[in-house]
Write a structure and sequence with these properties.
Layout lengths: L7 E2 L1 H7 L9 E3 L14 E2 L2 E8 L1 E6 L2 E6 L2 E5 L5 E6 L4 E7 L1 H6 L20 E3 L2 H18 L7 H29 L3 H16 L6 H8 L3 H12 L3 H17 L6 H7 L5 H12 L3 H10 L2
Parallel strand pairs: 1-3
Antiparallel strand pairs: 2-9, 4-7, 4-9, 5-6, 5-8, 7-10
Helix pairs in contact: 3-4, 5-6, 5-7, 6-7, 8-10, 9-10
């Protein structure tokens, strides 16, 4: 199946794309590759991905916010985020690990450990610029995990890898907290409110498209929320909601197994006509025209 048609990019898909034959459908680890070479496609990955960049630069959009990474940057994505790769330099290389909660559970590791990490939060910063010592520490772990996971004849290969992954996650969480706390201290009340709004938005936008829902969750008025978000970001709360729905709709329309009506239903529109009007207003094309154009790019 062509990757550009996928709404959900699975670990199995990534394994096939990068020809990582020794990987499993719940865990993979790579040597240095251009992991972000699939460009301009809104996607979900059905696992947690962590990459450490060796060289080059990359620009990506995560939950509608644009981030840039380079050498010694850590890139993290989670299953509930929408990722779109905008651009990578020709020399971009990174090591990466992608895993699911199923992999942890199968190796007797409590998968809920992920919920305790700040970097797995829906509103976490997905690109962290590390200093040289931090980057080297994590690169050594990546390389060691890579080597051990290639020992396909080892009877406890997966168990060893699972426990090494937990070490990596804890080391990275410690580094992430140090960097995140610096950012967090700089947030004003309005910036914090905006952060909370986006945290709620990417959990509920498929069901809730009204500003009042988010305002009620945050105990502020819709007017105050709209003005605050626009002050911080330049876009109103309503514009962010519509943009999130439009990005998700574009990803869903690339899945040929879904009808346009089913896409509208998944996004909680009352009927196909309402969905079509919304989509054309946001994207500039009807859903059918957009789907036809996307298919031509496959």
């Amino acid at each position: 199946m062509a990757v550009s048609r996928l709404t959900e990019t699975t670990i199995a898909n990534i394994k096939e794309i990068y020809q990582l034959d020794w990987s499993t459908n719940d865990f993979l680890v790579s040597d240095e590759q251009n992991f972000l070479r699939i460009h301009d496609l809104p996607m979900h990955i059905d696992g947690y991905s962590i990459g450490i960049c060796s060289r080059g630069t990359a620009k990506m959009e995560v939950n509608l916010n644009v981030y840039e990474g380079g050498a010694n940057s850590m890139i993290i994505t989670t299953p509930h985020q929408v990722l779109r790769v905008i651009q990578t330099s020709e020399d971009f290389l990174c090591r990466f690990i992608v895993f699911s909660k199923r992999f942890l559970a199968a190796n007797y590791i409590n998968p809920h450990i992920l919920d305790t990490f700040q970097f797995s939060n829906v509103n976490a910063i997905p690109v962290v610029h590390l200093d040289v010592s931090e980057a080297n520490q994590l690169k050594e772990l990546f390389i060691y995990i890579w080597r051990r996971f290639q020992e396909v004849s080892h009877p406890f290969r997966k168990e060893i890898t699972g426990n090494l992954l937990v070490v990596l996650l804890h080391d990275f969480e410690a580094i992430y907290q140090k960097h995140f706390q610096v950012v967090q201290k700089k947030l004003s009340r309005k910036e914090e409110l905006n952060r909370q709004f986006h945290n709620l938005l990417f959990r509920h936008f498929k069901q809730e498209r009204g500003v009042r829902f988010y305002a009620d969750q945050m105990f502020v008025t819709p007017k105050y929320l709209t003005e605050t978000v626009k002050y911080v970001t330049g876009k109103s709360a309503g514009e962010w909601i519509d943009a999130a729905v439009a990005v998700e709709a574009q990803a869903l329309l690339k899945d040929p197994s879904l009808t346009i009506q089913q896409v509208g239903n998944l996004l909680n529109f009352p009927d196909q006509s309402t969905f079509g009007k919304f989509f054309k207003k946001e994207v500039g094309l009807s859903p059918s025209d957009y789907r036809h154009g996307a298919n031509l790019q496959v």
